[in-house]
Amino acid sequence: MTEPLAGFTIGITAARRADELATLLERRGARVVHAPALRLLPLADDAELRRISRQCLAAPPDVVVATTGIGFRGWIEAAEGWGIGAALLDALGRARLLARGPKARGAVRAAGLPDPWSPASESSGELLAHLLGGAPAGTRIAVQLHGQPLPDFVDALRCAGAEVLEVPVYRWTAPADPAALEQLLDAICAGEVDAVTFTSAPAVAGMLALAAERGRQEALLDALAGPVLAACVGPVTSGPLADLGIAPVVPPRYRLGALVRALCEALPRRHPVLPVAGRSLQLRGHAALVDGTVRPLAPQARVLLAALAERPGRVVSRRALADALAAVAPGRAVDEHAVEQAVARLRAALGAADLVQTVIKRGYRLPLEPMEDAPRCTARR
What we know:
Elements: E1 9-12, H1 18-27, E2 31-34, E3 39-42, H2 47-58, E4 63-66, H3 69-81, H4 85-93, E5 96-99, H5 102-110, H6 124-132, E6 140-144, H7 151-159, E7 163-167, E8 170-173, H8 178-189, E9 195-198, H9 201-213, H10 217-225, E10 229-232, H11 235-242, H12 256-269, E11 274-276, E12 279-284, E13 287-290, E14 293-296, H13 299-309, E15 316-317, H14 318-327, H15 336-350, E16 357-359, E17 363-365
Parallel strand pairs: 1-2, 1-9, 4-5, 4-6, 6-7, 9-10
Antiparallel strand pairs: 3-8, 11-12, 12-13, 13-14, 15-17, 16-17
């Protein structure tokens, strides 16, 4: 069977676990482009984290909220480096423990602390509702941050009368290789990738900031609202895009595996399967699927097939195809002879000459024909 992501190119913006995500995508047939949108800086020597940790020793919190596994582990490791690890665990162990999701919950348990309460939805909203329902007035709450402030979460607790300690265990900064991110931005705007994945809200913010800095934010949003599918690991990550009117794919479970499965379902659905010359034909990113067989396409062949597939069953003139080819070969004249050569190369790439039919003196078409007992398609008008 053809892998579900065969023929598609997917951008990865993750700084953490990027290799794991790339492997999952490549196993399903995708071509991967990796460009971290940010860099994670642990704060083991950060004065603010040390100060907050000592406050927790002097006046232990009543409630501790772990938002990420890596963040909570980093906090405990930093405290151990300062020689206060055991004392901090003792102070935290006396508190009511909550974790946003299973990874944070696992990190709390791995530290030897009691099993924390965790919301079934793994969402900050349900976690906040649980806290507010417990009469937080006068409660001292330590909230482990996850790379950026949580103003809405923290402000809601403070408005309810809680004393909140924000624990900054790490922060995000600009990527180590900004050129790679710029190239991915250009590829998204040009529609050269079929999807782009985000695994953190700061990564989304980093991509948007770069686009704004280069005057390309409108082009980026147009691409993400059209030919390029945005995929986010959860609703917190998708928030910055949703605020701008983009509706990314978000899996029901906020995991890398679920994100990949969501892409496996969503990406093929965006590309219709056409019954052409008794075969099935589907244009996918940098390839075509002919009866389920992947046929790699050069850029010119892909442009030609895309132009024909926009009007399946109808004739596309040589002039229109020449204009389409000229768009990917700026500065080069494209005449009817060049179109004929490009069509010949397209037929060879598809492995079946009859998939592209010549209509004498008019142009070319994809001859729509039923496959076996399937009903005949009607050409779009």
